[in-house]
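Shift notes (night). Ran NAD-dependent epimerase/dehydratase family protein while the centrifuge was going.
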Amino acid sequence: MVRDSDADEPITPRSVLVTGASSFLGGYLVARLAANPAIERVVAVDSRIPSKDLMRRMGRAEFLRLDIRRPAIAKAIATYDVDTVVHAAPSIMDGAEHSAAIKELNVVGSMQVCAACQRSPSVKRLILRSTGMVYGASGSDPAMFAEGAPARKEPKSGYGRDLIDVEGYVRGLARRRQDIDVTILRYQSMLGPRIKTRIGSYLSMPVVPAAFGFSPRLQFLHEEDALAAVEHATLNRRPGTFNIAGDGVVSLAQAVSRAGHVRLPVAASMIQPIIGVLRDGALPAMRAGHTGYLIYGRVLDNTRMRTEFAFEPKYTTSQTLDDFVTRGKTSPLISADTWRDLEARALVAATALQ
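Came back to this:
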């Protein structure tokens, strides 16, 4: 849900190019933009072909299969006279384990996109899908991360490090081309019944390894709110850097319990190897950046999201978790019927003893 703002009128882009069109966020954004008759042209870009269902949803959008690490992205921007670029290609939520190839896609690909925007006289706006992982996760973190307060110990590797570099390139573009409005959206951990993310796969494990003696605070962003936020950024002039997150927090123990699963307390140093044993191919092995998050958690301050970005999520953290459990692919280790049967037996036994 978007709140009205008297200060800034909606600016409907004429020609929009979206990278990462085979991903959930990029693909469904293309579908939403293509359904907007006020937008003249929507161009979807990815090196991978989207699923048949996603391609069908994209409707009138034009799909280009190209690698953003190559100069072809500049040709596409020029050919379609693009005025708005939504860079959703950085690999953050994919199930693949972080690797040199993914780093190259994230960093080199983003360099090419920024270079193409800089050379194009038609581009006036760039929206980057970033992540809260840029803040890192450690025992010295503040209660909430605001956009202007970096982590005391920034990520040295992995997805968080990639996006720190990517954000740097985007800000460099803004300095060199001050006529281009740049919007950076730092998404909190996403959950939903359709999207596949690492935290979703982790919470779907019947037995969930958790660091003994730690109670990390978690904050979630619903997949629908994630889509609505990037659509809002595309249709409205909102330059700046913004945390995008649902209200409220839950502890890891609460999240596991509400999913109907069992928490397995283990030494913090053992989380990564134990997940590697239990995941059964469903979850990539955790790297240091991910295990830090599972030990310390991460909460983002979403004040600027409301006051400057003028966006209001429909789902709180708690509601997002409940929707993920209710409509997602996770199933409780002990079903509700089993719990009710055990309660009934206990009640019968207690009555017999009276």
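The two ends are 56 Å apart (CA to CA). Confidence is low (pLDDT under 50) at residues 1-7.
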